[in-house]
Give the backbone structure.
Amino acid sequence: MNSPRGTIVCGPSYPYDSNQRTCFTDDRAKIFAWPSRGGIVVLDEAEAIDYEFLGLDPLDPPMKRLTDDSEEDAFCQRLLLLGAKWWDSEARYSIVLEIEIGAQEGCRVDSAFVLSKQPPPTMREKRLIKAGWPSTGGVWISEFDTTWAGVDEEENLIDWDENLGRLRMTRTMDERCTMLRHRFRGTFYPDLKTYRGYGFFNAWEEKELGEVGPLLHPDETRDIWHKAYTSHP
C-alpha cells in the first residue's frame, strides 16, 4: 500500500543509546561506559565529586562515549573504582531498573524483553555501593542490601533516602570518606585487591561472563530486540 503524500515512513525506534556517556534526569545524573568485551558499566547517582575523580567537568560533562576502544576501556576501569555496576547488557540494566521502580510482573520493558521471563536481580545487581578515595591513600567502601528485590541481609540495610542527601553535600573525596566512615558503616581497604564484597571493583581482571547470561555488545542487544520486534504480528 502506498503512503499518502507527505508521510514519512520509518522503522521502529531503537530503545537504547549505545553512545551515551551522561544522562540527566529530574533528580540524578548517570554515567555510562562501554567495555570492549561487552556489557555496560553504569554509575547511578553520580555526583560532582565522581565527575572530578574521572577527570570530567561536572558542569559540562561529555554526552557521548569515546570512539577509541582502548581509551573507553580505560574509562570503564576508572568508573568501576567508584562502585559502578557492570551489567550484562543495556537491556538487562533497563529490566532491573524497571523492577526497582516498581514495575509489575509481566510488564513489557520493550518488544524483546519481558520482566516475567527474566531472572530476578542478583545480589551484585541490587547491591547499594558507595566508594571514596582519600587523599592519604586506600579506599573507603560502604555497601548495603536493598529491599526492592527481596532482603537477603536484614542486618545490612540503611535508610538510604534519609542519608543520601547528607552524602550529596560532601564537597571533596576526603569529606565523602569521612561520611562513609561515620554514617555509612564504611570499611577501609589499604589495598583494593583485598576487597571481597559484591561490588565490581576488581571485575576488570576476572569478569568474562555476565550476571545472568553472556556479556552482550550493543549490536547483539540490538539484533535480539529487532528480531523480537519484527516477529510480532
Summary: The longest strand covers residues 40-46. The two ends are 17 Å apart (CA to CA). The chain has seven helices and seven strands.
